[in-house]
User: Which sequence fits this backbone?
C-alpha cells in the first residue's frame, strides 16, 4: 500500500512533465504496459519476435540472394528496423532539449517503479515464470536478438569484403575505388 502511494506521488508530477514536453501519450502507453506486466509473467501476453530475427536465429550466416551490395543493405535495413541502430551509426539528432530528455528519463524511472510494484506482489514469481513458460519465451527473445546482432555484423563484414558502401558495410568504411552496386 505504501509503494502504491509513492508511485502515485511520482506519477502525477511526471505525467504533467510529460504533457509539457509532449510525451504524455508515450507515458500513458508505458503506464499501461507497466501495469499489465504480470501478464508477461503468467505467459498470458508474449513479446513479439520479428520474422527477420527468427530467420537470423535459424541461419545467421545465410548468403542466399545476397550477391549485391543493394540486397545486403536491404537485409541490414530490415535488421536495423527490428533491432534499432547499430553501434557504428551516429545517434539520431532528435532536436530535443536537455529538459525534455530529463523528463523522458524521469518518466522511464517512474514506469520502471510501477512495473516493479505490479510484479513484486506475485509470490514465487520466478517459479511461476518457469512453470508458465514465460522464462523460456524470454530466453528465446534474447537469443533471437543476439542472432540478429550477429547476422548484422556478419553482413556488414561481407559488405566490407565486397567493397560495398554503407549501409551494406559499417558506417566508417569507405570503399576503395568504385563501390559495387
Assistant:
Amino acid at each position: 500500500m505504501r509503494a502504491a502511494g509513492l508511485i502515485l506521488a511520482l506519477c502525477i508530477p511526471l505525467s504533467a512533465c510529460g504533457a509539457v514536453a509532449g510525451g504524455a501519450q508515450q507515458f500513458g502507453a508505458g503506464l499501461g504496459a507497466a501495469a499489465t506486466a504480470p501478464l508477461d509473467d503468467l505467459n498470458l501476453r508474449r513479446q513479439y519476435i520479428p520474422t527477420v530475427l527468427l530467420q537470423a536465429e535459424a541461419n545467421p550466416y545465410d548468403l542466399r540472394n545476397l550477391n549485391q551490395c543493394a540486397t545486403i543493405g536491404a537485409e541490414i535495413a530490415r535488421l536495423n528496423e527490428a533491432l534499432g541502430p547499430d553501434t557504428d551509426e551516429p545517434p539520431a539528432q532528435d532536436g530535443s532539449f536537455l529538459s525534455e530528455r530529463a523528463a523522458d528519463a524521469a518518466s522511464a524511472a517512474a514506469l520502471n517503479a510501477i512495473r516493479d510494484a505490479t510484479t513484486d506482489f506475485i509470490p514465487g514469481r520466478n517459479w511461476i515464470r518457469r512453470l508458465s513458460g514465460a522464462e523460456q519465451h524470454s530466453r528465446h527473445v534474447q537469443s533471437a536478438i543476439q542472432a540478429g546482432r550477429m547476422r548484422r555484423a556478419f553482413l556488414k563484414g561481407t559488405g566490407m569484403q565486397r567493397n560495398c558502401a554503407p549501409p551494406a558495410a559499417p558506417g566508417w568504411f569507405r570503399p576503395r575505388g568504385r563501390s559495387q552496386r
